[in-house]
Each structure stands twice: as C-alpha cells, then as structure tokens.
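Reply to dn_fold:

You asked what the input looked like. This is it:
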Amino acid sequence: MSEYDKYYEDFGIEDEFDELTFYCVLPVIEQVTAVFLKLIGLSAIVTILAQLKSDRLNSIIDILLGLLCAFLFYGSSMKYIVAVVSISYMVVWVTCGTGKCGAAVLLSNLIFVFSCELAVVSAEQWHQIRGTVILLLMKTVSLGFDVDAGVITPPPPPLFFGYTLSPVSLIFGPFVTLADYRQSKHTPFTKDVFFRICNSFLLAYLCVIFSTCILNYALDSAEKTTMFGVYFTAQSFRASHYFVCYTSQITALIGGFQHSSDEPYSVVAPSKVEFPRSMAAVARNWNLPMHYWLKTYIYKKSRYLGVFASAFLTYAASSILHGLNFQLPVVLFSIFLFSYVEMMLRSELAEMFDSCVLVHRCSDCSHRNKVLELPTKLVFVAVNVVQLAYLGVMFDSDPTQMEGYSRWNVIRKWSNLNWYGHMLCLLGVGLTFLLRVVNKFWGKKNQ
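and this is what came back:
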C-alpha cells in the first residue's frame, strides 16, 4: 500500500463525509431548489395578483398558472389532470340539486381513476400524476358533498376550475376546501407567516437530505433485516413524506391558507408520528388536511353504521384513493387493525386500573390511578414505534415499489421479519379478551 493510499485510509471518515456532501447532499439541494423555484414562484405570483381584488380575474389567473404548473411538472400527461377536473365539473352541473352530487362525483372519479390505472395510462405516467389526481378527487368530492349539504352553492366555471387547478395546491397539496380557497384571497401576509415559511423551508431541506443521503448511508452499513435496518428503511420513507408535506405547507402559507387567525396552516406533525401516543395518532397526524377530508366526508357520513364500520370504510376509502396495488391497501388495513386492537386493549386497561390510558385524552378525566398512566403510555409509544418500522419496510428504495409490490413481495418482506407486527397485534387481541373477561368477573363480584 502506498503512503498516499494509507493516508486516505487513515482519514476514511473525512473522505466519506466529503463523498456524502459532494455526491449526495449538494445534488439533492440543487434538485429540490429547482422544484421550489417553479412551484413556489407560481404560488407567489398567485398571491401577488390576488391583490387585484377581482374574484373572477383571480380565478382565471389561477387556471392559467395551474395549467402552466401541470405542464412544467407533468408535460403531456397534464391532459389527464384536465380530464378529471372537466368530468367532475360536468357531474356537479348535472347532479346539483338532487342531493346525490357528492356520491356521483365520487363514483365518476373512481371510474376514471381505475380506468386510467388499469388500462389507459402507463404505470410510470400514473405514478407521476397519481398524487395530483388524488388531490383533485378529494377537492371535487368535498365540493359535491358541500353542495348537497347546502354549505355552498354550485360554483361557476371560473371559480370551480380556479379552485381545483390553483398551483398553490395542485402538485403536492394540501387538500383545501372551496371555502378555504375563497378565504385565502383575502388573507394578509404577516411577519409571522413569513417566519413560518422560512422554518418550513429549512425543515423541508433537512428532511429530504436526511431521507436521501444520511439514512441511505446508514442503510448501506446496516443489514436490512435487522431491527436497525428495518427502522432506518421506514424512517427514510417517513422523512421523504415530511419533505412533501413541508413543501405543501410552504405553498399553502404563501397562498394565504390558515386554520384561523391564531393558528398557522400545518400539514404534518412529525413529532406525533415519530413518537406516537397511539396508532390512531399516526393516522391523524400523518397528513392533517387529508385526515380532515376522511373524517368529514367519509367517517361522519357513515357514522350511522357504527364505529367499527365507519372506521373500516374510512381506511378503505384511503386505500382506494392511493391506488389498486396490493402493497398500500395491505399496509393501510394493517394500520386499521393495529389501531382498533390498541383502542380495545387500552379501553380494558383503563377500566381495570381506573387509569387514564385511553387512545384519546380524556376531556374531563375522572380516573383516579395516576401511577400507571405514564409507564403504560410509554410502553404503547415504544410498541407503536416498532410497529411503524414493521409497516414502513414496504416502502424501501427498491424501484419496483414505485408501481407497488405484488402480494408475494409483501409476504416475503414481512416473512423475513417473522410477521412480528401482526404477532404483536394477535397478542393484543388475546390480552383484550382476557382483560374483558376479568373486568366482567370483577364487576359482577363488586356488585
């Protein structure tokens, strides 16, 4: 070995740092900045021109800039974006006043989505535009149900197309209602919003670098079937999701969207996902606007069927929205199963020990046993972190997962982990049954 080689071997860590910086971090920053310049530039133009104070003109500007945005990101595939919006408007126009507008828009959009995914659009093209199609479906379905409920009147064409095609929420989201869209045109741009945007920029860059460079480097050094490898794989996927959410948060804040005058717009809550109080908290904080849509337009609409049925339909709707591949529905239904078993188990524990360990915080807590509260919650946080690693292993960097794994690939991946996530869930079912028997016996004995 030459002195030159020995010198660089001795300083291998520094070399690896330089390699990571110059061959991953800097190129990623360059690519992300190019995306930001297009997307945030168009969003800023929308906000500046909103000062014209003409609703009709603002809608036309949003349509034109939205079409430009779709072309810049999707090229010729933008025709499918225009098609789904046009079909939705025709359905709204035909069915408004019948009380079935929301259901009709949902059905027509699902037929369009399934036709595109199965026969019309190539797998590569569909993967590129699927996120935007999902957002458009959510927007138009919410509009249809709001028309049925009398919350809004059927919008004229410029307002409908401006709302659906606005570049502020076209590519990465977030989901916004028509009322949110109207209000955004009259929201002042304050110093607090500016600092919130800067903070979101920083977090977006950190998340994409962490996901693409740092965690991938860690994965190269760890066996993927070990617990560390499984956790890093899942966290890489989550970090990339946070990047998308923070990007949509930036455009939403630039576009004037906010929950109220006191609460800036938030799309994701990473701390509540990484250290989840419950699996239900993961589903809620993963994408706050999408959770609002599922809760308002699916869960509440089906609430008369009972808690289990309405929750099942909510997860089913989320699965259908994300496509027909086997991978996503299996993961989403596993989350539903894990969260439902956890809810039942914690309910029995709360009854047995008279402790506030339920999935949701008590609004007016009357539980007397405070000793077991913190340890029990920490146990469930740890269990849910392990479960997230188990579920997230499906979303690795394998190119084939872009189109969705087949059922055999899903089975193989979880078999490599000995199905430990579902085994924990089965253990939870057994404990729930046992505690329920004990609680009933104890209750009868104390009567």
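The CA atoms of residues 27 and 124 lie 23 Å apart.
Hope that clears it up.
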